[in-house]
């Protein structure tokens, strides 16, 4: 009996060693063909900007083509579902803004993908706040004046967002419910489309990611009235936190890589390690600060825990705002 147990133990160790060798070999050979990165929002916003930056850098590091494909719609749900149902081989990745992973699941009861079960988190690249921007015709230069202006004409002031259920939408809904004002929501198919109408003065305001908002505000095309972080963004020192006017308001969007759930752990860890190499480069970190966001560079396990925590947080926000996804 002891001999059998010893033999079984030896066999188990041998199998584990073979699995380790096979896994290491798999990771070393990856990628040996083009990798496709799905970005769930249209060009122009922070998810697209950093999805392309990371993909370009990984392409150089791997000496392999990394192609970005924008699959938009349903607050990021269409692209996320596509990746969830893709082959789990590391050749189709999701570069997600957290909306489709932590917000949309709280808005859509019968979502075709499960944000925890159907994905293998790889790395949270960076996170940052949203910036509330208004057209120059809006007679307000700070949040208090804006709230007073909206309150003076209930149901007549509108705002744009990148779509129903997006964080831009929910951020404004938090202002609406917290300040007790009545506004009209006009959803667009992405930040870029909404921005066009706000720049033209057809819609007075919208939220944008810090990366996209910095250049717009510095150019004087729109006024920045507040950021959704608890502290000021270094790249926008004159724009105060909305929390100064609406206590407790904090919304930080993250941008990171995920893969289909059954993707081999060795490949997940290789992408994580290579991504962190890029994130830690001084020039990359300088770009992040310039764009008003901060590096995260966590492990797959830490990223998975963050996603679960964010799902719970957004569940409370969605319930409090009463927002619904059409």
Task: Give a quick set of tags describing it.
326 residues, alpha/beta, D-Maltodextrin-Binding Protein, domain 2, two-stranded parallel ribbon, 11 helices, globular
Description:
The strands form 2 sheets. Strands 1, 2, 3, 4, 7, 8, 9 and 10 form an 8-stranded mixed sheet that branches. The chain has a two-stranded parallel sheet with strand order 5-6. α1 (2-28) packs across α9 and α6 (167-179) packs across α11. The protein has helices at residues 2-28, 46-62, 77-84, 99-103, 143-151, 167-179, 191-199, 210-218, 265-279, 282-290, 300-321; strands at residues 35-39, 66-70, 92-97, 119-134, 157-161, 183-187, 205-209, 223-227, 252-260, 294-295. It is 44% helix and 19% strand. With 326 residues, it is of the alpha/beta class. It folds into 2 domains: 33-127 and 253-321, 3-Layer(aba) Sandwich (D-Maltodextrin-Binding Protein, domain 2), CATH 3.40.190.150; 129-244, D-Maltodextrin-Binding Protein, domain 2 (3-Layer(aba) Sandwich). The protein has 11 helices and 10 strands.
């Amino acid at each position: 009996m002891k001999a059998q147990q010893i033999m079984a133990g030896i066999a188990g160790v041998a199998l584990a060693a073979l699995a380790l060798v096979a896994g290491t070999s798999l990771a070393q050979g990856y990628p040996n063909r083009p990798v496709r990165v799905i970005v769930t929002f249209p060009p122009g916003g922070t998810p697209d900007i950093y999805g392309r930056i990371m993909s370009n850098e990984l392409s150089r590091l791997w000496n392999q083509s990394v192609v970005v494909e924008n699959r938009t719609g349903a607050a990021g749900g269409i692209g996320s579902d596509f990746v969830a149902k893709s082959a789990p081989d590391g050749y189709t990745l999701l570069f997600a803004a957290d909306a489709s992973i932590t917000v949309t699941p709280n808005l859509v009861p019968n979502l075709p993908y499960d944000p925890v079960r159907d994905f293998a988190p790889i790395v949270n690249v960076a996170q940052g706040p949203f910036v509330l921007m208004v057209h120059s015709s809006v007679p307000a230069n700070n949040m208090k004046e804006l709230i007073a202006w909206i309150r003076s004409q209930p149901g007549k002031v509108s705002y744009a967002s990148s779509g129903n259920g997006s964080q831009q939408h929910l951020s404004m809904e938090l202002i609406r419910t917290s300040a007790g004002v009545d506004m009209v929501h006009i959803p667009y198919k992405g930040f870029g489309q909404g921005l066009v109408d706000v720049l033209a003065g057809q819609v007075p305001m919208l939220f944008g990611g810090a990366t996209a908002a910095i250049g717009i505000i510095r150019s004087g095309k729109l006024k920045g009235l507040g950021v959704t972080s608890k502290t000021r963004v270094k790249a926008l020192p004159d724009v105060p936190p909305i929390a100064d006017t609406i206590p407790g308001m904090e919304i930080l969007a993250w941008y990171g890589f995920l893969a289909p759930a059954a993707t081999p752990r060795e490949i997940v860890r290789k992408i994580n390690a290579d991504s962190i190499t890029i994130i830690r480069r001084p020039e990359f970190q300088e770009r992040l600060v310039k764009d008003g966001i901060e590096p995260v560079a966590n492990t797959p396990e830490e990223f998975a825990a963050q996603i679960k925590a964010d799902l719970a947080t957004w569940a409370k926000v969605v319930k409090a705002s009463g927002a619904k996804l059409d």
